[in-house]
Amino acid sequence: MRIAHISDLHIQALDGVPVRRFLNKRVTGLANLVTFRRGAYSIDVFERLIADLLEEEPEHVVVTGDLSNLALEGEFQAVFDRLKILGGYRRVSTIPGNHDTYTRGSSVMRRFESTFYPFMFRQFSDIDVELYPYVKLLDEVAIIGVCSAVPTLPFFAWGRVGEAQLGRLEEILRREAVKRAFSVVLVHHNLHAREMLQEATASLRDVGPFVEVLKEGGVNLVLHGHDHLAHTGSIRAGESSIPVIGAGSSTRLDGSPSKVARYNVYTIEGGTLKNVETKVYDMRKRKFIWKF
Questions:
Q1: Which pTM was predicted?
Q2: Which of 63, 145, 177, 202 has the most C-beta neighbours closer than 10 Å?
Q3: Which 3 state secondary structure label does DSSP give 236?
Q4: Angle between the N-to-C axes of helices 73-83 and 43-56, in degrees from 0 to 180, rounded to the nearest 10
């Protein structure tokens, strides 16, 4: 199975949004859009990404959060309308990032889940309490979607899995069907330490307990987003290790080769991760090319 990993799309859709919708944390996000992130994340690149994925034909595509920029309905719909071109439940999996729960209202209203549930759940109801983790059994692979996204105060982007969800994750990893499969856990927040300010404001608060559950459950691969730089690390688990891979942003326009849009393709065969390849966006050619 070939799995494509995209992340941190940060799609914006502000047309027709009334000013009152920005009288909350979104005012800081809007300021960011017109300063540091002005023109940084492109829906044109996203459309070229979808076209490239259609050409590559991976068996599955995972999206590790921050599909939107301000958790607005129009942003979610713009992303959904493009992702659905790739297929449905058996072809695409996604989880929310901190920008997808940008305000408490977007989280309480389950705006993300109401739009993207066809990629996550066989069934979905607003009254369901325990939505995460979800698990999909796809031939030899088990995709497990964890939610680390929680609404935070302005200038903060930290995440938390939470004790209840960790307990459910433990139970999922004990299932015989999951133990027989190659298990891929999706989480938005990165597990590795970054510089001091990022650690203080944007880290995964319960990374320690989360890592212990992953180790005890014998997880085979962890995929994350959040850090817009591609990252490869590992978790030591006894005599083996669990690869932990961040895709970076898949829509970012940047002159730096390390920051520009990209996505990964993982080849899983015979219960092992056989290969990891990366396609990077060439801003001059306006297309994704293989990185060698």
A1: 0.93
A2: 63
A3: strand
A4: 20
